[in-house]
Amino acid sequence: MKPRPVRTRRLAAALLAASLLTGCATSVDPLERLGRKAAQGVRSQSPTADQAYRRWGLRAPLAAPPKPPDRPPRLAGATPSGGLPEVVDRVATSDPVVFLTYDDGAEKDPRFVDMVRELRLPVSMFLTDSVVGPGYGHFAHLMSVGADLQNHTLDHPSLRGLSYAGQRAEICGQRDKIRSRFGVSPRLFRPPYGRYDTTTLRAAADCGVSAVALWRGVTTDTGLRFRHGPHELRPGDILLVASDDDDLDGPPLRDRTTRLLRRIQKKGLTVGRLQDYL
Description:
Blueprint: H1 6-26, H2 30-44, H3 49-52, E1 75-76, E2 86-88, E3 90-91, E4 97-104, H4 110-119, E5 124-127, H5 129-132, H6 136-144, E6 148-151, H7 164-182, E7 188-189, H8 198-206, E8 211-213, E9 217-219, E10 224-226, E11 238-240, H9 253-266, E12 270-271
Parallel strand pairs: 2-8, 4-5, 4-11, 4-12, 5-6, 7-8, 9-11
Antiparallel strand pairs: 1-3, 9-10
Helix pairs in contact: 7-8
């Protein structure tokens, strides 16, 4: 019998080694393999809203909002005539909901995106192009986890007293920016500083705005400041989580949101989606 060529012997040895290695792999305890799979599953899962509330400083899970109305309720606030958009700082609803809004887009904390996703917070972000700058990608992430992106002008001027052409350029210009970047046309508009006039409403209407959303309550270092009415939370209140642009050492956006959520829960309320009610 002729000896096998060297190349053939080497190939056989390699196949034998591979089979031995395979045998070693299959000899791992099945319970150990099951434990590894379970651990991998835990790492790959995002916490649910019920699991996440402690992580974000809440004492209880945030209640799910009720089913939104089929038709937006009648707005509470000024009602301009002539087909102009409604101006509103709260919504006339008996649903136990308030609405969280954020202005400008100066703060771009990635952990806030995690907070919105894990708590399923239906927040509304009113964006200003000159403030957001190159950070639109951050708001794309927020939109992907459920945030609404709305209009807060291109350059954040005080609109009251400006010409129609100037106001229209600010409002329609930012509408076009959001539409080109995200494929959505914002229906809600917030004038910078809450200042507007009839010209603002005309320009907003021509830019496709259905409601001008102001706010009844705004966060402060000590809690909430209300612009009018009872100094307590009521169903339908639109709330502004103010930015600490001038206080770089102040609490981050997620901490200010947590403080407000605790107060909302204490009143037996939860967070609704503003766009569903306007």
